[in-house]
Amino acid sequence: MIEHYLTYIDHYLQAKPYMGILFAFLIAFTESLPLVGTVIPGSITMSIIGILAGRGIISLEATLLWATLGALAGDTVGFFVGKYYNERLRLMWPFKKYPKWLTLGEAFFRKHGGKSILIGRFVGPVRSSVPLIAGLLKMSWLRFFVAAIPSAILWAVAYLLPGVLIGAVSLELPRHVTTEFILIGLGVIVLLWLLFWAAQRFFTLVILTINDWIDQLWRWLYLHHSSHFFLRAITNHRNPADHYQLTLTLLAFLSLLCFLGLSILALTVGPLTNFNEPLFYFLQSTRLAHIDKFFALITMLGDAKVILGISLLLIIALGIKKHWRAAFHLVLVTVLSAAAVYLFKWLVFSPRPRGFLVLDHSSSFPSGHAGLSLAIFGFIGFLIAQQLPKKWRWIPYTTASILIVLISYSRLYLGAHWLQDVLGSLFLGFAILLSVIVSYRRYPSKPFRNLKWLVFLVVALVLPWAVMSKTKLHTVLHRYAPIWPVREINYKDWWQHPTRYVPIYRWNRFGHPVQPFNIQWTAPLNDIQQTLEHSGWESIHTKTDIQTALGRFASYKPERHFPLFPWLYRDKPPVLFMIKHLPHATTIIELRLWESGIRFEDNAWPLWVGSINYHIAPKRLITLRRPHEISLVNGGGVNELARALTNYQWKKIFLHGSKKPKKIRPLEWNGEILIIRSTGAL
């Protein structure tokens, strides 16, 4: 159906090519006008235009150009109206009747300054009114265009790109599934737009509700004399009406409760424990040497020696400059966080993840790196923010947050901690950080007189980290290097009892058994490959790229539907991947062999473990349900493989009685395992 309309549109636009470009300009222009643009779903309309561009019906370059010009023109109109009418806007309809529309935009603009034009275009409630507010608040034309031009370009690219991709992919699809694919693509865009819209309003409502509750609680505490001691302990004496102190206190208390809850889970087998191992196995399966080095450097920034060294240097500097209150609270947050981390490591013992060259016997819970970095770097970021104008305070907060997130993730990536260890330490560090900030804000200090302290801050951050990186990088890399032990066994013992030494199932990237090892083969790999090629098998060299991924939507052939990421065993991909086409069938046989991690004491030939299965052709190219792509019915191709083994000695064994894991049952595996060795073997 849609293919028919697209053909009609194609013929029409070929006759009048300017109409498509004009439509893109008008949509972008209208979507950017004040008030009007708020009710126009730009993401949907621009995606439709993107589909036309992606299918080559209209020029992509011209569409991007004129969509950008349309967006810029709409912004310019809004800015001109705000600048020309100025304060008279407040007396004009509809702003006189709905003054909140201007109030929201002004609050957003005052908070973000000139960059609000850049980011405001992607924020629903103020999306099209920011240029109007900028003109109202007398921003210069030069500053406006400096922000508006890149904003319009980014908007055009971001809103056209999903449609362009959908249109480009649809060209590769069979005609009878094009309509379905485009409808699903548009449906996903609409769904994402609705979710984003709902999330914005939900969180706005939640924040307003919480603020209202805090105000009511503050008034209630103020009216009850028994709570006056508590209020005096948290009140900002420079601004007694500052209810933010109560918000911070409640957040600190809530964070502490979350930490105590995770402490109990660390001592028992709680719900979060079920996520520890899957996340650990998944992250270990993604490790690469150059990324290991990066996160080793990051994790050293969170080392106790480095963080305490940074804190000590800054305390000395603050003391020399006689900023006693800032120095005292930096000492306080350092001592409290370090003491709390080591106290709970002693109280709550949790073994660390295993599988590395060096085994750490200390408690895994909580993570000292994550807890110390959040508390200390968070407080340093807070101190820096107090010295800056409000519009620049996001810089130290964002920088500190990025460092904390990277350090926390490095502990998970390197396998130093479980998920609950990092989450627990973050809650603990957050509780300590907020408590110290509440104490500091009772008598806020005046900003420092100059910014020379920033130079010393950089030195204090870099010096301990650089020293640690120079001296300990190789030690850290060695410590967190994954180890897969190699086992030596007797050749005859293996032949007589093959399942005693090789695991029955292969685990996926999340640590769950998903496939049986129904092949064990000892022979040189080249001999195996040549033997199979002589019998009609093909070697497959898979790669993951955009073309491969998009090819899944264009063909029913099973060989176009291999996994996007290779199946792993011992965190390594198969050393050999071959397929065989069955005559008069849409199903193929897949054979994968991996290094087993086993070598023989009395035979130099390697032992490979593998899986053989049928790969079923998909019945639908586009579906929301994931069908079972592989099958082991009737051995999964074992009999076809056995016909090619004329130069090998082989036997079949059957596993009976063992309960199969949940993900294995749909494969219909009968327990058959094929054991293969060369005829010249011992």
Automatic annotation (TrEMBL):
Pfam family, one: VTT_dom
Transmembrane segments: 21-52, 64-85, 141-161, 181-199, 248-274, 294-320, 327-348, 368-385, 397-416, 422-439, 451-468
Keyword Kinase: no
CDD domains assigned: PAP2_like_2
Domain (Phosphatidic acid phosphatase type 2/haloperoxidase) ranges: 326-437
GO biological process, one term: FtsZ-dependent cytokinesis
Protein name (database record): Phosphatase
Keywords, comma-separated and alphabetical: Cell membrane, Membrane, Transmembrane, Transmembrane helix
Topology of the protein relative to the lipid bilayer: Multi-pass membrane protein
Family, similarity comment: Belongs to the DedA family.
GO MF terms, alphabetically ordered: transmembrane transporter activity
Annotated Gene Ontology cellular component terms: plasma membrane
Location(s), subcellular: Cell membrane
Keyword Transferase assigned: no
